[in-house]
Specification:
heterodimer, A: 367 residues, mainly beta, Methylamine Dehydrogenase, Chain H, 4-stranded antiparallel β-sheet, 30 strands, B: 407 residues, alpha/beta, Alkaline Phosphatase, subunit A, 8-stranded mixed β-sheet, two-stranded antiparallel ribbon, 10 helices, globular
Amino acid sequence: MADLSKPSMAWNLTWDAEWVTAVTFLGSSRRVAAGNNLGQILLWELPAKAGGDPPKPVARLDGHINVISRLTSSPDGKTLISASYDHTVRFWDVPENLPAATEPLTLNARMIEDTTRRKSNGAKVPPAMEAKVAVLKSTRTFNEHKEWVVSLELSRDGKTIISGDDGGHVLIWDRDSFAIGKRWQVKGWANAVALSPDCTQACVSERYPLVFDSGRHAAVKIWDAAKAEVFKDLSAEYKGMFFAAAAYALDGKTLAIGRGGELDGMNGSVTLIDPASGKKIRTLAPGHLSGLTDLAFHPDGKHLASSGRDTVVRVWETSSGKLVSEVGKSRGGQFKDWICALAWSADGAWMATADMAGAVQIWTFPG
Amino acid sequence: MKGVAVTGTGLVLPNWGALAQAKSATEAAIKNKKRCIMLWMNGGASQLDTFDMKPGRPTGGPFRPIASKVSGMPMCEYLPKMATVADKLAVIRSMKTQSPDHPDGIYHMHTCYKMSERTPHPEIGAVIAKYNGNPDSDLPSFVRMGSTGNGGAGYLGPLYEPFGIGRDGKLGSFTSPYLPEEGEKKRADLFRFVEDEFTSEHKADPFASHRMAKERAWRLLRAKSVFDSSKDWPKAKERYGDTEFGRGCFMARKLIEAGVPFVEVGQENYDSHADNFVCHKANMQLLDPAWSGLLLDLEERGLLQDTLVIWMGEVGRTPQINNRAGRDHYIRAWTVVLAGGGIKGGQVYGSTDVDGKEVKDNPVSEGDLFATIYTTLGIDSRAKHYHGVRPIWLTPEGTGPVKELIG
């Protein structure tokens, strides 16, 4: 049983080609995938126990040509699903036995380039962190979005996908056949989407991100997913607030929404809502400094993790609202790097975080 | 605000800064009827995310370029309508300027002089109002809406001060008279009588300025209908986009057509130190239909050849993307776009290096830009004025028009 109050970093997986923007575990395997701003995806095989040298990536997944916004995996861990600003959602069959690792990769190429440029000022050029990876191509591509796909979630049973783009289109579709069950358009951009475990409800955060003009817009609504109709409009209670992430608890009785964008102070908070009534259960404090980026319920159904623009991940007990632990530390300075995304392992004993600074952190919670 | 001009014999004359100009030159410029619309990107739009893209470079960002109507002039995928009118655009990719922050940059890019100078330089709108405005028109000669300039008429005096209207092009409620027309006229006549009596005993410029403002306001009320777009907006919004900025651009076209020589329309939200790409994507989706719609509308009405349309802000944005997903202010290499009004369209002028960090060739300063603008509008960019006894030129010494940009 994991003790969520005692996080410990297992490995810091350097990959500084660009910002790491998305991360997921593949089913219940020891595999972790992460995506970056360039549209690249890497796959790692994690050792069973923490410690030792950080593992090196084993595969590169080629296909996307722009920012990876979300990653998720089928429950059996055999399929990786990625959403991108290149308007596509791609599917990758990840075999048990990967092809031969043939492609060389320098994991700290940017650091080497930067320090080489500053060498005359005394900067020390680090040794190259080399790896060899297998190359996988995507097997299927979902092309129904015509704008940046900014949000994506796979249902608990692995059969249904909800995805949203910044043209405001929300699509609920079948993972295997790509048949679109429902689609609707919200005002502004569909920035965060979540599907209830029984697929009857969807939460969608809307936004048109103008600062001053009257065209600015922010709203959050719970939808009847079968009818594609608004079930509860929460916008009046959360007037003008933009929510960057949304997630349903495993039992479907709690909906978590997190405030994002760049906010003043500690306002990047998580609010827990009863999705049946739309009523607020509680707000979790403190919020993330400058804004929240991602949310993920723990597989035990009792805990929730949130990440932010303050390089911190917080683990919360949802029944009490108690802060159980802080994972990582704020890096200081007026503005910090972001932890763009986070994911729990299937057994709940591991967490992966996507660090804007060019790394994937693997945390463990020893029992 | 009062200035003086000194004649050759030492006679000091009261002056708003313009008496040194030959009357015939002014009349000639007015006859020329050149007009100008400035689309002001308040906060500073990113050149790397619009017209000087660096795809595949670390400074590139997530936007992708699309081909435009002009070979060698790609632009952001979120400016698809602008891409279809690229033959009208002169894209200056080599702006290299001096004022890196907002107040000083706004001043500098409206006057072509540094804010730190003690001389109150006039904004571009005031200069164009003076030289190309019609003094007999009931309409103001310098109109602006939204967030725009901060310099005013400077040494040109109150006659050329800007007239501000709502950011959507609507007149303020203060323009609605309290009384019926006949009553309002009697009230104005009474005011004139009382003020004539008063000023006959009290001679001072502030009184004259006040009276001038009043008279202009009454004249404006006579032409108020020009500002009413309620009938034609329902159709126009399909072209311009149903936004405040779109409506502002539409109003600019209406005013130009009615004879106003200078209109400035501000678009907000560009100061994207954080979330640059989100901000720019949202802004470009408003900008694209409004700007392209304006150019096409002007062209269809035969106005584009005599109407210069300027797209600029006070600064560009850094090639480097910061850890707030933002871009900060940048003045070493950035972009301004000109169209219509005597500009040779379909060209890119100047260039930047592979990451957009430095100008590679043909640097253009504030003074060069303004000299180009004034020259295309038939205004002598080296016209001399006086502030007190001090001579001042419209554009700084050592600067001049970029001939390649002028058709």
